[in-house]
């Protein structure tokens, strides 16, 4: 069985999630059909208007790459059942609606930019007649609600579509199934058989954990872990998935945007806890990124360019950071991320004698440091020792560097253990 541990996924650390579909035209959350209990006929107005003339996968790939993302995951099918790929098993596709196989465009564009390709596939399907009208279904409680569907037919449909996705689009690196809930779980999905099909077709692929059986990594959603995640005492690879504004699909009137510096902190916090971050964009009704999404990605890109090595290929450190700071580590390079900028002196416990050189990462400017046994305040030798032995003290410029999150790169002495 493949493992995400130590492979491309953990080196990549940062990914782009793309939610696009008929709901993008409604522009009020990807669950709009369920939230507003819309009939299929009412929802079909988006199908009739679907025209992704501004969906440009190559541009998305470039923006992602510049932002420091190393993989990307597109909604091949979301809960509404609409497929962004050429499926022989349904007419409900972007190919029939607009002559565009968006999964093909996406996979090709991402690979061309050197990004790994992931596909999201919804286990829920409010369009398929075999899917039961349950509590999430738009037709719940309505007169035209169907009886419990023919799940075995739906299972065969899912297996068939997953086969299409894994055979028609080159090397797919990752599958994100979504999601399991009470009453709809591994048995209903035929999770074991589905997983076997996936592994047989693409032995190296990574699969998430939302089929309700263990996958290769776990997926905390809109929640930021602050420590490594473990299953039965063993650390597991994980990926926190986050939105820009609380909605996955384009949500025009929702202005609850996270600040780029907050997003960078979330990325670094993930890496410092051995996890990844996948950040979502919801292209608009014509397939384009709106200003807010584009500006956010560009702001992150400006940070990522000089700070890449503190993220890509880095992981948690066994050193304990001072207050208001996080460590990431890659071999003998220890990265100190300063969430708040202290005045002149920063004391690092346990690092005396272990650091050979220090610099600000964004501009490669040297940072002086010293070690004093039982450190005393400079110019006041009568003051009691303020730091325990073993402390290394950095001398920082007074002005905080003008980057979203300042990082100091500490080169550890030879012999210091890698993280
Ligand atoms: C949830 C939502 C879904 C979204 C997903 C992303 O499961 O149902 O709309 O695609 O999270 O992780």
Layout of strands and helices, then pairs:
Blueprint: H1 8-12, E1 14-18, H2 23-26, H3 32-35, H4 40-49, H5 57-67, E2 71-77, H6 94-98, H7 102-112, E3 116-122, H8 151-168, E4 174-178, H9 186-189, H10 191-201, E5 206-207, E6 230-231, E7 234-235, E8 238-242, H11 260-272, E9 275-281, H12 291-307, E10 325-330, E11 333-338, E12 345-348, E13 355-360, E14 365-366, E15 368-370, E16 392-395, E17 407-412
Parallel strand pairs: 1-2, 1-9, 2-3, 3-4, 4-5, 8-9
Antiparallel strand pairs: 6-7, 10-11, 11-17, 12-16, 13-14, 13-17, 15-16
This protein binds alpha-D-glucopyranose (GLC).
Alpha-D-glucopyranose is lined by residues 19, 30-31, 178-179, 221, 241, 248.
Can you put this structure into words, describing what you see?
This protein is of the alpha/beta class and 419 residues long. It has helices at residues 8-12, 23-26, 32-35, 40-49, 57-67, 94-98, 102-112, 151-168, 186-189, 191-201, 260-272, 291-307, and strands at 14-18, 71-77, 116-122, 174-178, 206-207, 230-231, 234-235, 238-242, 275-281, 325-330, 333-338, 345-348, 355-360, 365-366, 368-370, 392-395, 407-412. A seven-stranded parallel sheet has the order 5-4-3-2-1-9-8. The longest helix has 18 residues, at 151-168. The chain starts with 7 loop residues before the first helix and ends in a 7-residue tail after the last strand. The model has no long low-confidence stretch (mean pLDDT 94). Bound molecules: alpha-D-glucopyranose. Alpha-D-glucopyranose is lined by residues 19, 30-31, 178-179, 221, 241, 248.
């Amino acid at each position: 069985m493949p493992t995400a541990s130590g492979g491309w996924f953990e080196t990549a650390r940062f990914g782009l999630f793309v939610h696009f579909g008929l709901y993008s035209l409604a522009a009020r959350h990807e669950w709009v059909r369920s939230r507003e209990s819309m009939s299929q006929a009412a929802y079909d107005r988006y199908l009739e208007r679907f025209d992704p003339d501004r969906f440009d996968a190559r541009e998305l790939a470039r923006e992602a790459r510049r932002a420091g993302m190393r993989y990307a995951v597109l909604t091949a099918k979301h809960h509404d059942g609409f497929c962004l790929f050429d499926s022989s098993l349904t007419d409900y596709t972007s190919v029939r609606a607009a002559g565009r196989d968006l999964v093909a465009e996406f996979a090709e564009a991402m690979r061309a930019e050197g990004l790994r390709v992931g596909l999201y596939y919804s286990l829920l399907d409010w369009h398929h007649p075999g899917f039961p009208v349950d509590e999430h279904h738009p037709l719940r409680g309505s007169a035209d609600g169907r009886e419990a569907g023919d799940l075995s037919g739906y299972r065969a449909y899912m297996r068939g579509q997953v086969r299409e996705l894994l055979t028609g689009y080159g090397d797919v690196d990752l599958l994100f199934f979504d999601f399991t809930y009470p009453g709809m779980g591994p048995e209903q999905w035929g999770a074991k058989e589905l997983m076997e099909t996936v592994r047989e077709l693409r032995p190296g692929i990574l699969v998430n954990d939302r089929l309700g059986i263990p996958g290769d990594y776990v997926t905390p959603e809109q929640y930021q872990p602050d420590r490594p995640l473990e299953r039965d005492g063993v650390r597991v690879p994980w990926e926190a998935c986050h939105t820009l504004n609380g909605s996955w699909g384009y949500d025009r009137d929702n202005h609850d945007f996270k600040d780029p510096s907050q997003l960078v902190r979330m990325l670094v916090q993930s890496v410092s806890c051995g996890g990844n971050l996948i950040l979502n964009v919801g292209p608009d009704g014509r397939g384009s990124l709106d200003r807010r999404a584009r500006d956010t990605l560009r702001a992150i890109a400006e940070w990522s360019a000089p700070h890449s090595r503190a993220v890509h290929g880095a992981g948690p450190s066994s050193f304990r950071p001072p207050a208001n700071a996080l460590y990431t580590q890659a071999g003998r390079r220890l990265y100190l991320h300063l969430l708040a900028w202290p005045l002149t002196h920063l004391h690092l416990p346990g690092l005396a004698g272990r650091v050979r050189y220090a610099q600000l990462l964004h501009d490669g400017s040297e940072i002086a440091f010293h070690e004093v046994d039982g450190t005393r305040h400079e110019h006041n030798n009568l003051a009691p020792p303020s730091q325990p032995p073993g402390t290394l003290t950095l001398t920082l410029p007074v002005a905080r560097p003008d980057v979203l999150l300042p990082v100091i790169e500490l080169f550890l002495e030879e012999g210091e253990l890698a993280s």
